[in-house]
Specification:
seven-stranded mixed sheet; alpha+beta; about 425 residues; about 35% helix; Dna Ligase, domain 1; about 25% strand
């Protein structure tokens, strides 16, 4: 029996259904200033998708259930004790993982839960501890409030203020009532990063809140006088956009983090607890979860919402080769699909390299598709994933990324960040 298509499927299959209000988006981009608008237009022509993505209320509920279950499991006492540590993770005393300098315990900004959605439901494929795009998606969402699109967006009220409050809360947890005076947005060669326009947008947000903000490469920071400095400016908080998750390549920042002379968010412990790919195997190990004390409802949510994952071991290489087409192989500490391979596309050489260790394999879960018409050309089906931006266990915003190929590369005409609308 063939079930009737849902409203979401119908809308996603029609490239001319519920088009984005491009004029409103252009107005919003231009309102950020001529220089910023030109930078986006020249560097990021495929930053925003031409159409929204539609999902069902049931898919939305499942994503919430999976996120809630992950947050409860990660909060169990045994989870942090047994996490697969990056090598080496900064520690403060025997067995104590630094999560944020005393007296508080930072929560980590912009966690990203990434899902593939298909007819079998929602499937968590990755957790990021420094997910990009939150600020840009807030701008996109705000530009389309009067576009008359079907369904509802999933976002908290006043996203800009919510994001600002998130950073203030990270500071408060670490420093109490002391005023937050300065923030450094830190990444390697930040001006060359694709999402550099987002750094500029965040800098503007902080400065409007009377917080001095700087976009810097970590090599520009100096540790002295019990603090972290950029020239003569003492840095209170670092918004960490680095993909060196254990900070091994950045000893000055790592030492400041260890000594508690700066508040760093997100930090290496956030990555280890949530985003290390080996955690996907732990989250899909029902017996291991029971041993940690997870309840059966959470185990069921995780089993149903996260494709099974396993640590790759060379001893099983014959089985891995025979079953490779069922799996997606990811490096333990990878990011942005770097070094990740769909099993059916593996050459024997790459497979042998994977068998050397440092990989997790996750059962394939097909992404959803959204039909797009670009410049009145023939309709083309793009893949999409859905990213839930989460802080302190609470969902702030749900967005999507449209793309062709294996990765969300922001090079696809008609693709990029997309609004998500929930329809019944």
């Amino acid at each position: 029996m063939t079930l009737p298509a849902s409203t979401a499927e119908t809308l996603n299959g029609d490239c001319r259904a519920a088009m984005l209000d491009r004029a409103a988006l252009q107005y919003a981009l231009q309102a950020q200033g001529a220089a910023w608008h030109s930078l986006v237009a020249e560097r990021c022509p495929h930053l925003f998708a031409a159409v929204p993505v539609f999902i069902t209320a049931a898919q939305m509920r499942q994503m919430r259930d999976v996120i809630d279950a992950v947050e409860r499991v990660v909060g169990l006492p045994g989870w942090s004790r047994d996490i697969p540590l990056p090598n080496p993770l900064p520690q403060a005393g025997e067995g104590t993982i630094v999560a944020c300098p005393a007296p508080g315990n930072c929560l980590g900004v912009f966690f990203g839960y990434d899902f593939h959605l298909n007819s079998d439901g929602a499937h968590l494929i990755e957790i990021n501890s420094n997910a990009g795009g939150g600020f840009l998606n807030a701008l996109l969402l705000d530009s389309q409030r009067d576009a008359g699109l079907p369904g509802k967006a999933v976002a908290v009220e006043n996203l800009k203020q919510s994001f600002l409050n998130m950073f203030r809360n990270e500071w408060r947890l670490a420093r109490g009532a002391a005023p937050l005076r300065s923030i450094a947005i830190v990444d390697e060669q930040p001006e060359g990063q694709y999402l550099y326009p987002e750094f500029l947008w965040a800098k503007n947000l902080f400065e409007h809140a009377m917080i001095a903000a700087h976009i810097v490469d970590p090599s520009a920071l100096q540790a002295r006088d019990g603090g972290l400095y950029l020239d003569e400016q003492k840095i209170d908080l670092v918004y960490n956009r680095l993909t060196d998750f254990s900070l091994q390549r950045h000893p000055v920042l790592r030492q400041a983090y260890l000594e508690g002379s700066v508040v760093l968010t997100p930090d290496p412990a956030h990555y280890a607890r949530y985003a290390d790919k080996r955690n996907l195997a732990r989250l899909t190990d029902a017996d291991g979860l029971r041993a940690l004390g997870a309840n059966e409802a959470d185990i069921a949510a995780l089993q149903g919402g996260i494709p099974h994952a396993r640590q790759v071991e060379a001893a099983d290489q014959e089985q891995w080769w025979a079953e490779r087409k069922q799996w997606f192989f990811k490096p333990d500490s990878g990011y942005g699909s770097k070094g990740a391979y769909r099993g059916e596309k593996l050459t024997r050489r790459v497979f042998d390299e994977i068998m050397q260790g440092g990989y997790v394999a996750q059962k394939l879960a097909a992404p959803g598709e959204r039909t797009v018409c670009v410049n009145d050309a023939e309709p083309v089906a793009l893949k999409y994933d859905v990213r839930c931006y989460v802080y302190a266990g609470q969902m702030q915003l749900v967005a999507a990324r449209l793309y062709q190929g294996q990765t969300t590369n922001f090079r696809t005409p008609g693709g990029g960040f997309a609004l998500v609308r929930v329809v019944e």
